[in-house]
Specification:
The chain is α/β, with parallel strands linked by helices. It folds into two domains: 5-120 and 286-305, NAD(P)-binding Rossmann-like Domain (Rossmann fold, 3-Layer(aba) Sandwich); 124-279, Dihydrodipicolinate Reductase, domain 2 (2-Layer Sandwich). 31% of the residues lie in helices and 25% in strands. The chain has helices at 13-25, 53-58, 73-82, 100-110, 124-134, 152-155, 175-178, 181-190, 286-301, 309-328, and strands at 5-9, 30-34, 48-50, 63-66, 86-90, 114-117, 141-149, 193-201, 213-220, 230-236, 243-250, 253-258, 263-268, 275-279, 332-333. It has a nine-stranded mixed sheet with strand order 14-13-12-11-7-10-9-8-15. A six-stranded parallel sheet has the order 3-2-1-4-5-6, with helices on both faces. Strand 13 and strand 14 (275-279) form a beta hairpin. Helix 3 packs parallel to helix 4. The model has no long low-confidence stretch (mean pLDDT 95).
């Protein structure tokens, strides 16, 4: 399919990034934006804009990027899916699992591609980390330790952090939703999460109304030999030493991915130091550009994207379980409620 009409819903920082990439990859397309402010000045990459969904649907876009705040993802995506539009929905797919199955079924019945925007999966370093684990470079994985943290006011130093999406409950902020990339790639690499234990809280003096710290214990589904992998994940908005690490501890050593430096390192049994196996220092737009390539290829080939709507639904199930576990202080088992059907 030759894409000639594109809609970008939402013009925050991520919406503007998608608009730039759409113009770069589809230079001759009619690219319109959907935003609430009528008459607001549009970026030069946009061909025009709308302020209502009815106007956007009347434009008959072939593809749409949903990049508005997370609480509004599902309603916008559902309206466009019902109109037969291929969708790339920024992470997270929604703020809860409820209603996501209907969106997936709508996309399936219309033969539409639904890609969930967990762009970290497109990083060469994370892909190499996963491949090396599949090649058993450290033997059986016995434990996984993952951490992600950055000081919220430093994320976008040119804007007031208190007004940003990450700081506001009404816009789907908080560490759990904002940093849910880790939940996606952990289940992509290590399998489905079977149960969670969790503690969520606001530990800092930041002027926010959402959690800034999340500590999780994750039980992955048992393997064929009944071995159950246990992992831990720490997520926060308060850490000054920005960190994104995943360490797999195995029978033959440890393998570590550093998402900031793009490195994969190995510590072999009996060694004294880590040894670098792979390095690719990505630029911010690299993974998004690869994500776009996958999206457009899947539309043309009528195939399933690397990060599907089903993947986004699975992450939302984990998020729902995390909230419940934090509230009750107990272990919450994630029921096997797979989304109906699936994308092409």
């Amino acid at each position: 399919m030759s894409v000639s009409r594109v809609l970008v819903a939402g013009l925050g920082s991520i919406g503007k990034l998608h608009l730039r990439l759409a113009r770069e990859l589809l230079p001759h397309a009619d690219i319109r934006v959907l935003r609430r402010e009528e008459g607001a000045l549009l970026p030069e990459q946009a061909s025009g804009g709308f302020s209502t969904m009815d106007q956007a649907i009347a434009f008959r876009p072939q593809i749409a990027i949903i990049a508005n705040p997370a609480p509004f993802h599902l309603s916008a995506a559902q309206s466009l899916a019902d109109a037969g539009v291929h969708l790339m929905v920024e992470k997270p797919l929604s703020i809860a699992a409820e209603g996501v199955q209907r969106l997936i079924e709508s996309c399936r019945s219309h033969g539409l591609v639904l890609l969930t925007g967990y762009n970290l999966r497109f990083l060469p370093s994370l892909q190499r980390f996963r491949d090396l684990l599949k090649q058993n470079v450290i033997g059986k994985v016995l434990s996984v330790r993952c951490e992600i943290g950055q000081y919220l006011p430093s994320w976008r130093p040119d804007v007031d952090y208190r007004q940003g999406v990450s700081a506001r409950h009404d816009l789907g902020g908080g560490a759990l939703l904002e940093l849910s990339h880790e939940l996606d790639y952990l289940r992509w690499i290590f399998g489905e999460v079977d149960w969670v234990e969790a503690c969520m809280s606001r530990q800092s003096r930041l002027e926010i109304d959402v959690e800034d710290t999340v500590h999780l214990m994750l039980g992955f589904e048992p393997e064929a030999d009944s071995h159950r992998l246990i992992g831990t994940l720490s997520m926060d908005l308060v850490r000054h030493d920005t960190t994104r690490l995943c360490t797999s501890i195995g029978e033959l050593g440890s393998l570590r991915w550093n998402g900031l430096t793009g490195t994969v390192e190995l510590f072999e049994a009996g060694a004294k130091n880590w040894r670098e196996l792979f390095r690719y220092q990505h630029q911010r737009e690299d993974s998004y550009r690869a994500e776009w390539g996958n999206f457009l290829t899947c539309i043309e080939a009528k195939s399933r994207p690397l990060v599907s709507g089903e993947d986004g639904f699975k992450v939302m199930q984990i998020i729902d379980a995390v909230r419940q576990a934090s509230e009750t202080g107990g272990r919450v088992v994630i029921e096997d409620h797979s989304a109906t059907g699936g994308e092409p």
